[in-house]
Design brief:
- The structure holds two protein chains of two kinds.
- By secondary structure, chain A is mainly α.
- Chain A has a single domain, classed as MetI-like (MetI-like fold, Orthogonal Bundle).
- Chain A contains 13 helices and no strands.
- The C terminus of chain A is likely disordered.
- Chain B is of the alpha/beta class.
- Chain B has two domains: 249 residues, P-loop containing nucleotide triphosphate hydrolases (Rossmann fold, 3-Layer(aba) Sandwich); 95 residues, Alpha-Beta Plaits, CATH 3.30.70.
- Chain B has a six-stranded mixed β-sheet with strand order 6-7-8-3-9-10, with helices on both faces.
- In chain B, β4 and β5 form a beta hairpin.
- In chain B, α5 runs parallel beside α6 and α11 runs antiparallel to α12.
- The chains are: A mainly alpha, B alpha/beta.
- At the A-B interface, α8 and α9 of A face α2, β6 and α5 of B.
Chain lengths: 242, 349
């Protein structure tokens, strides 16, 4: 195996340590920024949904301001956002480069996108279900947790998959401004030194990652449509007693 | 008892204001099946949503069972969120499209209102099983709604609505999305719940057949107003408003006569000396053999075109479309005879 790789991708082989290091950096950026963006996006998507004029806690001011901020960040291309946020990032985490420096712009680049996706997923929850929950005396928090988040799971999984894939794209762009990772590896060691095998390897690993993410996402969404993720198909106590 | 006083609700839409509920006063007694009928947009759905404050009325007073009176002014009430929750739990509600949680089993759907209410797991399970038995779905306990028929879904929704043992069930077009067979079975279930549990049912519908099948009282709504209200039997026997008459006709096979007249059907075509009338026999009518009696004593002939007897709220209501023929004096005599026997006569041609 090693000999084979050495044979078909000699440059990649000689920089294999750097390669794995950049994979590690990309994974770190993806997981940390993705984790933060997931939580924030979910929260903001919920806030947008319930403060909508037909929502369960209508609030014009909150909805308007949040909407405006999200639109503002959505309209700035990520590369510009990266540069724009440098002073803010530096003041927040002490540096604007490396994995740490990349987290802040990645979060800013992902949250508005994910928030919109969450909003769309929650909008798909039949308002009748919410009304039924209200008629049963469910509280606002109860409706959020037991109706909105519960019923939207398949759509939220799809939204998360799409966002995760777009986040991988963003991490490589962040690489271009010194964040490290696969993007900067492909740029500096591949393209910069004219080593096509390195670029190819980067493309291949990104391609594989996206396919894996999409496959897992699709499967989970399918398995949670109209049912719980873990349904026990075994006979129930009452049936066994018959 | 549910008392509604001076209830108003206006929606402020971009296209203008829509008054959905206007000055509605209604009293619904315990154990009644109370129907509210109207065409779409008449305000019946808004009215029923005002009862459990899913929609906040602009003004009015609601008095539900033993709860303190709820006074609503300028679209506000002093009811706390906590009291609102408690009041809603005292009233179950079912919907046209069932509104079950698709990702929860039948069991979990019914358990929804019980969970996080301080009830133990064991008690919840026992109560859900009891409810499943009540709606005859014990074998569907671990099935998801997508695997159920419409009628079964509505049964689950009914079980869920009754989980907290409410004294009132609000039904918003609960049979409108069902086929005739499922409609029949749901109406039968509602009637039996009304009888066995003493459940008060407020039922919204646009189908007079549903009112006829299970309601004791009915209110007819048009443009946000309740235009006519009373016992279902009286409304069927003697509709006063034009819209009520239309609804009553929609549920009566005798209304075919109007179409027949329009089409100049030979059966309803009358010659000189003949008269086409619609007779209504309500429960106060005296004498069972009125028809043959009239024929004999007044010397006229009756040719029956259409006839029907409905049992409404347990009492018979008969109707007949018939051609009378005879001399003018004899016809006059026959009409007086009908009047004496308390039979309502409406001349059609």
């Amino acid at each position: 195996m090693e000999a084979w790789i050495k044979d078909i991708a000699p440059n990649l082989y000689s920089y294999r340590k750097r390669f794995w290091q950049s994979v590690d950096q990309t994974v770190s950026m993806f997981l940390i920024a993705g984790g933060i963006a997931f939580v924030l996006g979910l929260l903001l998507g919920l806030v947008l949904t319930i403060t909508h004029k037909d929502g369960i806690k209508p609030n014009k001011a909150v909805h308007f301001i949040l909407n405006l901020i999200i639109n503002a960040f959505r309209s700035v291309p990520f590369l510009i956002l990266l540069i724009f946020l440098i002073p803010f990032t530096r003041s927040l985490v002490g540096t604007a480069i490396g994995v740490t420096g990349a987290i802040v712009p990645l979060v800013f680049g992902t949250v508005p996108f994910f928030t919109r996706q969450v909003e769309a997923a929650l909008a798909n929850v039949d308002p009748g279900k919410v009304e039924a929950a209200r008629s049963m005396g469910s509280s606002t928090l109860g409706i959020i947790l037991r109706v909105y988040l519960h019923e939207a799971v398949p759509d939220l999984i799809r939204a998360t998959t799409i966002t995760a894939i777009s986040l991988i794209g963003l991490t490589t762009m962040a690489g271009a401004v010194g964040a490290g990772g696969i993007g900067s590896f492909a740029l500096n060691y591949g393209n910069g030194q004219n080593h096509q095998d390195i670029v190819n390897a980067c493309v291949l690993i990104l391609f594989a990652t996206v396919i894996i993410l999409q496959t897992i996402g699709n499967a989970l969404a399918r398995r949670t449509t109209n049912r719980k993720l873990l349904s026990f198909s075994g006979r129930t106590k009452t049936e066994a007693a018959k | 008892m549910i008392e509604i006083k001076k209830l108003n609700k206006t929606y402020h839409l971009k296209t203008g204001d829509v008054s959905a509920v206007r000055d509605v006063n209604l009293t619904i007694h315990d154990g009644e099946i109370y129907g509210i009928i109207g065409y779409s947009g008449a305000g019946k759905s808004s009215l029923v949503r005002c009862l459990n404050l899913l929609e906040m009325p602009d003004s009015g007073i609601l008095h539900i069972n033993d709860n303190p009176e709820i006074v609503i002014e300028n679209g506000r009430t002093r009811l706390s969120e906590r009291d609102l929750g408690r009041m809603r739990r005292g009233m179950g509600m079912i919907f046209q499209h069932f509104n079950l949680l698709d990702r929860s089993t039948v069991f979990d759907n019914i358990a929804y209102p019980l969970r996080y209410s301080g009830m133990s797991r064991k008690d919840i399970e026992a109560r859900v099983m009891e409810l499943l038995e009540l709606v005859d779905l014990t074998d569907k306990r671990d099935v998801y709604p997508s695997q159920l028929s419409g009628g079964q879904k509505q049964r689950v929704a009914i079980a869920r609505a009754l989980a907290n043992k409410p004294s009132v069930l609000l039904s918003d077009e609960a049979t409108s999305a069902l086929d005739p067979e499922a409609t029949e079975s749901i109406l039968t279930l509602l009637r039996s719940l009304n009888q066995t549990l003493g459940l008060t049912i407020v039922l919204i519908t646009h189908e007079m057949a549903v009112i006829k099948a299970i309601c004791q009282k009915v209110a007819v709504m048009e443009n946000g107003y309740v235009v006519e209200e009373g016992n279902v039997y009286d409304i069927f026997a003697n509709p006063k408003e034009e819209i009520t008459r239309r609804f009553v006709n929609s549920a009566s096979p005798l209304s075919r006569v109007h179409k027949m007249l329009e089409e100049d059907n030979p059966l309803t075509r009358i010659k000189p000396g003949e008269m086409l009338v619609r007779l209504t026999f309500d429960r106060d009518c005296v004498g069972e053999s009125v028809i043959s009696e009239v024929s004999r004593s007044c010397g006229i002939n009756l040719n029956i075109v259409l006839a029907n007897v409905d049992i409404i709220d347990g009492a018979p209501l008969g109707g007949m479309v018939t051609v009378l023929s005879g001399t003018p004096e004899n016809l006059e005599k026959a009409l007086r005879h009908f009047e004496r026997a308390q039979i309502k006569v409406r001349r059609l041609a």
